[in-house]
Write a structure and sequence with these properties.
512 residues, alpha+beta, FAD/NAD(P)-binding domain, 2 domains, nine-stranded mixed beta sheet, flavoprotein, L-malate dehydrogenase (quinone) activity, MQO, EC 1.1.5.4, FAD/NAD-bd_sf
Length: 512
């Protein structure tokens, strides 16, 4: 079987793979674009399922997980819908739709299973990337309290949401999160839910650990290598043109399968690939900012991820949260996000990204979304005019006694919301979407939340789509070992849900 090249534009920072004589120096079985959580997850799966396949990861930055997977560039929440209110919309009749919440939670359980398997086998140290942090929802006012109670009633008996508590009692909520209550107006109506099953995940640390695993088994990881073009040859193989950002030279590589996990950069490369499936897709970039507590003493007063309700017109990624984070093993406290805007599709992207993504096929959807999303535009304008005083005022809705001098502003990552063609116009999507060629030989991931938390099921579904014969044949048993409940709904099997949650909690060192 072919193996990686002997020398390249930058060796892996996680280990040197063994090298044998390739069929052609630049032939690969698989090429992955971007060294983030998606490519890291896919590389790990493939190295387990097909250890002899030659795989190369190209990353334009000097190291892994430095864009959306960086711990300061994402919420770090193990998104399981325990606290995210946007996953449970309320209808005009007052009923709460929990369909998306169940789906997101099911997906996160699959991610937990994969990580737990790798931890049990000694390939991951869970203390480096995942911690138990209770998940809470918190609202004020009578209408919002009624909504939260209805949400609680709809979820509390489901096997995936066992342990959820609801309260309007100030003393109870103070026990859960004292910063929410101290200094708050006694006459204000409040309500909260609490679940000890929540987690905080450092996806940057996880990305590096997964790539270390893949690299030690022969995966090439080349940094400072920017993929500039993707074209299909007459033989059906994909040719990927890579520019060395150090010396400016370019080189071409070929593979029968390419995955583009380049965050906001995926749209441009999918467009360059020429696949018809990308026609009509566009992107709208939104950046984020957070307040971060300067002193660890403030952070240690709060041990929870507290999510509220988004402002009218705000995208789901802008849901406010007072958020316990663990980065490098140290506890931090953040609040936000506050939305920002630039035409870049990556934090380290180009100012021309938005404009160069416009094509005849997506121009009308882009214009239509611009005309029909006035609330979003109004929200963004209001966010761009915020100063430190106004940001602290927003923080005090969750932490009434917050002191301005104890908080600093940090710039988070850049997200590109998906715009899709719909009829004669377009629609703005707030999730993640895999766009793939009809034969599954090339695919890319677009969108944002819940993103990283659902990397495992996203990559499993991609493997099924790209390699259906192997997935249903020789890989089937291994997949069931790696992710035992893949293809099964835990929400329909309380006993299995309990057993699975307890097993993954033990393997990952989490509270049960």
């Amino acid at each position: 079987m072919r193996a990686g090249r002997d020398a390249g534009q930058g060796r892996s920072e996680t280990g040197d793979p063994s090298v044998t004589t390739p069929l052609s120096r630049n032939d690969r079985d698989v090429i992955l674009v971007g060294a983030g959580i998606m490519s890291a997850t896919l590389a790990t799966f493939l190295k387990i399922l097909e250890p002899d396949w030659t795989i190369e990861v190209f990353e334009r930055l000097p190291g892994a997980g430095r864009e959306s997977s960086d711990p300061w560039h994402n919420a770090g929440t193990g998104h399981s819908a325990l606290c995210e209110l946007n996953y449970t919309p309320q209808g005009p009749d007052g009923t709460v739709n929990i369909t998306k919440a169940l789906n997101v939670n099911e997906q996160f359980q699959l991610s937990r299973q994969f990580w737990a398997h790798l931890a049990t086998e000694g390939h991951l140290d869970p203390t480096a990337f995942i911690h138990t942090v209770p998940h809470m929802s918190f609202v004020t006012g009578d209408p919002n309290s009624a909504f939260l109670k209805a949400r609680y009633e709809a979820l509390k008996d489901n096997p995936l949401f066992q342990g959820m508590e609801f309260s309007t009692d100030r003393d109870t909520i103070r026990e859960w999160a004292p910063l929410l209550i101290d200094g708050r107006d006694e006459s204000q109506t409040i309500a909260a839910t609490h679940n000890n099953a929540g987690t905080d995940v450092d996806f940057g640390a996880l990305t590096k650990a997964l790539l270390k695993f893949a690299s030690e088994r022969g995966t090439e990881i080349t940094y400072n290598a920017e993929v500039r073009d993707v074209k299909r040859g007459d033989d059906g193989r994909w040719t990927v043109t890579v520019r060395d950002r150090g010396n400016g030279s370019t080189e071409a590589y070929t593979a029968p399968f390419v995955f583009i996990g380049a965050g906001g950069g995926a749209l441009h490369l999918l467009q360059k690939s020429g696949i018809p499936e990308i026609a009509g897709f566009g992107g709208f970039p939104i950046s984020g900012q957070f307040l971060r507590a300067k002193r660890t003493g403030v952070a240690k007063k709060h041990q929870a991820k507290v999510y509220g309700k988004a402002a009218v017109g705000a995208p789901p990624m802008s849901v406010p949260h007072l958020d316990t984070r663990y980065v490098g093993g140290e506890q931090h406290l953040m609040f936000g996000p506050y939305a920002g805007w630039s035409p870049k599709f990556l934090k380290n992207g180009r100012w021309t990204d938005l404009f160069t993504s416009i094509r005849p096929g997506n121009l009308l959807p882009l214009l239509n979304v611009g005309v029909t999303n006035f609330d979003l535009e109004k929200y963004l304008v209001s966010q761009l005019t915020l100063d430190h005083k106004k940001r602290i005022a927003a923080l005090r809705e969750y932490y009434p006694e917050a002191r301005p001098e104890e908080w600093e502003l940090i710039v988070a990552g850049q997200r590109v919301q998906v715009i899709k063609k719909k009829g004669k116009g377009g629609t703005l999507q707030f999730g993640t979407e895999v766009v793939a060629s009809s034969d599954g030989s090339i695919a890319g991931l677009l969108g944002a939340s819940p993103g990283a938390s659902t990397a495992v099921p996203i990559m499993l579904n991609l493997l099924d789509r790209a390699f259906p014969e192997q997935f249903e044949g020789k890989w089937a048993k291994a997949v069931k070992t790696l992710v035992p409940t893949f293809g099964t709904k835990l929400a329909d099997d309380p006993a299995l849900a309990k057993k699975t949650f307890e097993a993954t909690s033990e393997a990952l060192g989490l509270a049960k």
